[in-house]
Amino acid sequence: MAPIRYTHFISKRGDVVFSLACGFGAYFLYERDHPREWTLRELVTRKVERVRTEGWFPSSSK
Description:
About 60% of the residues lie in helices and about 0% in strands. The protein is an all-alpha fold and about 60 residues long. The longest helix is centred in the middle third of the chain and has 22 residues, at about 10-35. The mean pLDDT is about 85. InterPro entries: NCE101 (IPR024242).
């Protein structure tokens, strides 16, 4: 009888949640120790506003 072989670390959904939590936690700790001029929230807000006004692919980038 062959040993049981697991293809997922936790579960299909649990692996995704675990990896996202680790990623956000690592980013938070890095940003806490290495502050920048702009926060992630400010950068995302600027990008969203630019996409709303110019679209995803502005003509200047073509």
